[in-house]
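Let's study a protein:

___
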Amino acid sequence: MSATGPEHEDMLSAYVDGELDAAAIAEVEQLLASDPLARRTVETYRETSALLRAAFAEPLFANGTNRLIQPQATPRPTPRLLAWAMAASVLACIIGFGGGMLWNGHDGNPRTALLDEVTEYHHVLSRESTHLVEVPASQSDEIRRWLGHRIERRLDIPDLTQAGLAFAGARLQVVDGKPVATLYYTRERGTPVAICLTQFEGAADTLQIERRNGFRVASWFDGHFAYLVVGDLDAGMARALAELAAEQLRG
């Protein structure tokens, strides 16, 4: 299998969208291990998906996308052309509307903006089950490589089993044009919990616990990166998870 050709691009696109069966996933992962072009293609599709989620407001996607994209009898465009078309559409929206309809207003504080954007993402995605993550926990090595590369640092996946959380997988999100590595954890009772990492220029700050958009957020900053734990949590649980994660994210 080669990464060139529309049929192979379709398979890589379906891989990113979680539409392949186990045999096809194994075939694609074998290709990704040996083909740099295939890896770059997959990263492009993931980034395009993340940019679209970042650009459009929650109400547009909160009830699913079926009302936006109706199946047609015409042939499906190749993913490469589709990616360019979607990116161009996003750019046109941003230019045409000046960002006024795409971004919520903030108080001008980058930290506040980051927490608001991340919790708004979580408000939508924490209600997902089948499509909670882009890359499942079974592909942890791929998650470390892919997201570590995107945020330009070593990425360890915290083990939170002692707190009753199971690693489910990861997503790439985008806030203020910067990639955000988001790790999702599920639990027997309650909605999923997210751990987010992103580059953040600013003074280091110790752990703070607060509520944003209906969720508890534990956040801390080391002068180079921001770290957030987000979920439907009480303050004590948010602090305990943040401290447990922080010990494993020092790299």
Observations:
- The chain has a mean pLDDT of 80.
- The domain at 106-251 is CATH 3.30.200.100 (Phosphorylase Kinase; domain 1).
- The radius of gyration is 18 Å.
- The chain is about 45% helix and 20% strand.
